[in-house]
Specification:
The protein is of the alpha/beta class and about 400 residues long. It has 16 helices and twelve strands. Helix 8 links the parallel strand 5 and strand 6.
Amino acid sequence: MKIPSICSKEEKLTSYNPPHINPIYASSSFQFETLEEGINIFNGSSKGYVYSRFSNPNVELLENKIARLEGYQLDSDISAVVTNSGMSALSTLLASLTQPGDTIITQPALYGGSMSLIDQYFATKGIDVLYLDLLDIPGVEQAIKEVSQKAVLLIETPANPTLTCYDLEGLAKVCKHYNVRSIVDNTFATFILQQPLKHGIDYVIHSNTKYINGHGNGISGVIVGPTEMIKSDNVEMSMKLNGSNCSPFEAWLCYQGMKTMSLRVNQQSSNAASIASYLDHHTEIEKVFYPGLISHSTHSNAKKTMNGGFGAMISFDLGSLDRGKQLMKKLDFITMAPTLGDVDTIVLHPASMSHLNMKVENRMELGITDGLIRMSVGIEYLDDIIQDLDQALEQL
């Protein structure tokens, strides 16, 4: 072999003992040892990798781990399809399940990006959208009965940012009866605290960017459901064709982050419960939204579906836009950022940030007021978080 050939060819490592941590498989494609092997992998008769848009070892490792956790102690075979963001997980799944003439049924209070996707994309493609009070299960059933074409039910629980929790078992039962696919965005609770599939829900989605990764250094999403359903609904094919695959590096980051996920989420949830109680008794706070509080309007639903804690998300109302802005400016230890689920405590102002594009009257009706602050509680020492809130609230 001449110098140009030596330079360009891939060296083959001799296999000794395996690495303790899986490496990043930063390869766009995978070679075949023989023509027959390539043919068999392409036609599916043999397992193997072809092209990283289709599958990749890092992505597969992440899919396997999430499927095991979301399907923990379930009898059925569960699979996961990892995507390049939480938004692409939702868009890929909805694209797999709907066609013109179908109806997406969902709740009025959703993550702003999910609402924009539904209203500005799917609603313009001949798909009807119904925003319903999903706490009214008979009303949901009546709406499904009146829909002449296929429907899909999308549930976000706890909801962003009001933390409303829904009766998953009751909604799943209605969907099963009318052959309607049900989806739960489980980003806020995660499978550490809530497993929607156990309550009869068909599909679960996550923004892995949040609690699953947990370190604010990577973006990805995931679709989880029964293996046969994922196949019959062509979910994986949709991901491959629309190019919403996750990169090996992002999958590797998420996979590493998951190793501390149980510790993180439980500590965050414990901190949040204490902070919610503190805020609930503070004279400067008008209202606190936290599923773990008995005063929360859907506490009973949260108790049915969430195990071991009520999550790390809290929203609280300061009564006015001015007071909300004042608090945000006075916080020193707590971070202001448009995300959640990281190891540090983060605040956001929904009215001017995540729900900026929602009509004011609709936002106010749902309790997303001008003075509402959303807080993602981290793993820091509890007293440090409360001390920062205390000093900021004292200056209002």
